[in-house]
């Protein structure tokens, strides 16, 4: 049977038209996002060049750019790759544990009583407090770094999953029960999709914290990575290297966040949210 | 023996008893309206019949068979559409059948029946309130239940849409020989749709009155018979109105 496209309501067709008009607003959004950093960099460049700020403490942005280009030919890619790999592995481990434990706690009352109070207590421990213990347990190799990053990613994901499942509309669950869905199907067809917005928010926050914990881990003990570059720049009094590493961290963090945001938008295209309306102007 | 038999001995929310010693029956192909003040337990009664509320002392029999939970023979259209926003209209309608990508013809035929042809691939966010409620009715009908429970299904839509949906329900129920238990606050709706109107008391207990609606079908709105019956129903609630 063919789809009767002509019968679709105006709103459905309008969304397609909106999709075709996305490029100019995206370009405008990009230009708007770059405007403030560009102005700040220009102001900073001028302030340093005019002597208002000492160049040894705050090198001008053009010099930082030159340093990044220079480092690009001298192992910067290896440092960035090492950090990215650590974040990826630590985040995957922490997020997997967060999803697993979060779902268990959310869906099983017994597990909630047993696990949640302890996990909430662990959540309040500052990240750096783990470092000495991890160094004692795992030495200074890769494992303690990955575990620290995993801990950083775990709690936002865990919280997102538990709050996501807890916040599912009872009325939707009743529809699933009415149609006699067995528990696995109820989870897969009702609870999980309904909790997905909160879960994805948790994953996004977890990824952001994974980058932060990666820097903490590399500052303490590493011979490669952007955290190591930060430490190296401080020890050699090279503010340009420190700033270059910070810029790269910002770029990598932003890129990974954009990837998560794109995934979120794709998976949650069904949502009828205020922001979606602002983005597309669908109901303007 | 009636097609659907309901006996609720006791239903409480905490210390407050909402239903007590209530017996109700629905014949095959009969439309029964439940009328009563807010909080008198009408919606709770539907939840019990649907098997969604089991924290009570009650018995529900469908065609002589005692039910112990949700049953394929009973469909439910809730007060709000309760569509899954992540599923298309087609997947929402076929949700109860346990399959995605259900036969397009079956879904499209049902959409034709509820007056929404061509909407199969639309998302719930693209529907108006009345359209969403039509989809909810289609979902209630898709699994071909023998009894359809409706909990104030037209209360949130405008007057014109409400009349269209009432006509749709009367037509579909008649064509399919459905037994319908309809909770409503709208006396006109009860008169327009039902074969019997059951009036529930504010105090838990047996029904205050059961009034047969002996009007011929198809029914026209505003006839003398309907007006007389409406007055009769309202007279039963005069005590409540006085309070």
Word description of this protein:
The complex is a heterodimer of chains A (284) and B (243). By secondary structure, chain A is mainly alpha-helical. Chain A has a domain at 75-269: MetI-like fold (Orthogonal Bundle), CATH 1.10.3720. Chain A contains twelve helices and no strands. The longest helix of chain A is centred in the C-terminal third of the chain and has 38 residues, at 183-220. Chain B has a single domain (4-242), classed as P-loop containing nucleotide triphosphate hydrolases (Rossmann fold, 3-Layer(aba) Sandwich), CATH 3.40.50. In chain B, the strands form two sheets. Chain B has a six-stranded mixed beta sheet with strand order 6-7-8-3-9-10, sandwiched between helices. A four-stranded antiparallel beta sheet of chain B has the order 2-1-4-5, with helices on one face. Classes of the chains: A mainly alpha (284), B alpha/beta (243). The A-B interface holds A 1, 3-9, 11-12, 15, 171-172, 174-175, 177-181, 185, 189-190, 193-194, 196, 270-272 and B 50-52, 69-72, 76, 78, 80, 82, 84-87, 95-96, 98, 104-105, 108, 117-127, 131, 143.
Descriptors:
heterodimer, A: 284 residues, mainly alpha, MetI-like fold, 12 helices, 79% helix, 0% strand, globular, B: 243 residues, alpha/beta, Rossmann fold, four-stranded antiparallel sheet, 10 strands, 33% helix
């Amino acid at each position: 049977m063919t789809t009767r496209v002509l019968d679709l309501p105006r709103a459905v067709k309008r969304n397609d038209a909106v999709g075709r008009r996305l490029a100019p607003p995206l370009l405008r959004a990009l230009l708007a996002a770059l405007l403030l950093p560009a102005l700040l960099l220009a102001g900073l460049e001028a302030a340093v060049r005019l002597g208002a700020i000492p160049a040894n403490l705050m090198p001008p942005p053009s010099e930082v750019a030159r340093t990044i280009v220079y480092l690009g030919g001298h192992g910067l890619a290896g440092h960035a790759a090492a950090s990215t790999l650590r974040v990826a592995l630590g985040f995957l481990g922490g997020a997997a544990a967060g999803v697993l434990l979060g779902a268990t706690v959310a869906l099983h009352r017994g597990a909630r009583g047993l696990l949640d109070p302890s996990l909430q207590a662990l959540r309040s421990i500052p990240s750096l407090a783990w470092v000495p213990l991890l160094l004692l347990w795992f030495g200074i190799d890769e494992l303690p770094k990955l575990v620290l990053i995993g801990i950083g990613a775990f709690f936002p994901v865990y919280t997102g999953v538990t709050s996501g499942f807890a916040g599912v509309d009872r009325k939707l669950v009743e529809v699933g029960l009415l149609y006699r869905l067995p528990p696995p199907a109820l989870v897969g067809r009702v609870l999980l999709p309904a909790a997905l917005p909160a879960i994805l928010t948790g994953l996004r926050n977890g990824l952001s914290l994974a980058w932060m914990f990666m820097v903490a881990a590399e500052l303490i003990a590493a011979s490669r990575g952007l955290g190591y570059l930060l430490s190296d720049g401080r020890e050699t009094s090279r503010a340009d290297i420190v700033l270059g590493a910070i810029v790269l961290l910002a770029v990598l963090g932003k890129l990974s966040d954009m990837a998560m945001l794109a995934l979120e938008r794709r998976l949650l295209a069904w949502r009828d949210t205020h922001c979606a309306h602002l983005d597309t102007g669908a109901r303007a | 023996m009636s097609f659907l038999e309901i006996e609720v001995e006791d239903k409480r929310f905490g210390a407050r008893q909402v239903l007590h010693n209530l017996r109700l029956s629905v014949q095959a192909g009969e439309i029964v309206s439940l009328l009563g003040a807010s909080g008198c337990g009408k919606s709770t009664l539907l939840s019990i019949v649907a098997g969604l509320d089991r924290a009570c002392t009650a018995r529900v029999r469908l065609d002589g068979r005692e039910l112990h939970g949700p049953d394929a023979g009973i469909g439910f259209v809730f007060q709000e559409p309760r569509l899954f926003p992540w599923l298309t209209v087609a997947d929402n309608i076929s949700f109860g059948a346990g399959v995605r990508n259900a036969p397009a013809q079956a879904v499209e035929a049902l959409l034709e029946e509820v007056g929404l042809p061509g909407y199969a691939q639309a998302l719930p966010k693209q529907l108006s309130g009345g359209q969403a409620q039509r989809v909810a009715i289609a979902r209630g009908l898709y699994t071909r239940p023998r009894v359809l429970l409706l909990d104030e299904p037209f209360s949130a839509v405008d007057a014109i849409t409400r009349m269209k949906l009432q006509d749709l329900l009367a037509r579909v129920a008649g064509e399919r020989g459905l037994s319908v238990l309809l909770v409503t606050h709208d006396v006109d709706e009860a008169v327009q749709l039902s074969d019997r109107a059951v009036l529930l008391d504010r105090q838990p207990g047996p029904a205050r009155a059961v009034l047969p609606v002996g009007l011929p079908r198809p029914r026209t709105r505003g006839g003398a018979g309907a007006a007389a019956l409406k007055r009769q129903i309202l007279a039963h609630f005069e005590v409540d109105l006085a309070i």
